């Protein structure tokens, strides 16, 4: 099994084609092991060359609400009174540490997204 680091776009494209060929390989077989190694290399290359930024807190909350079929009333136990929920969702009020903890614990929203400042607040 000759595998080398992915250093160029050409190496990356070649690895993707190889992964496509091996996609249905069974685990714990030589082809399955090759697939695992190639996927790991591609993920490392993508993290370095195509970094994805986390959504800001409000976008993360809205996304989870949509995913889970939740409305603003459902956030009251985590954020506080309904008017406070609307203030947070409309970016009029920042999240407190207590709100962040509750949203993370109750809804499984990554804490990294909840503590990230949105661009509008940074500019202010």
Molecular structure report:
- Helix content is 64%, strand content 0%.
- It has helices spanning 9-22, 30-49, 57-68, 76-79, 82-89, 97-107, 111-115, 119-123.
- α1 packs antiparallel against α2 (30-49).
- The radius of gyration is 21 Å and the shape is elongated.
- Mean pLDDT is 90; it is low at 119-124.
Could you outline the blueprint of secondary structure elements for this entry?
Blueprint: H1 9-22, H2 30-49, H3 57-68, H4 76-79, H5 82-89, H6 97-107, H7 111-115, H8 119-123
Brief synopsis:
Helices cover 64% and strands 0% of the residues.
Percent helix: 55-70%
Alpha plus pi helix count: 8
Distance separating the two termini? 55 Å
- Biggest sheet overview: none
Cα shape: elongated
Number of strands: 0
Topology as a string of helices (H) and strands (E):
HHHHHHHH
Supply Rg.
Answer: 21 Å
Structural class: mainly alpha
What portion of residues belong to β-strands?
under 5%
What are the main properties of this structure?
mainly alpha, disordered C terminus, 64% helix, 124 residues
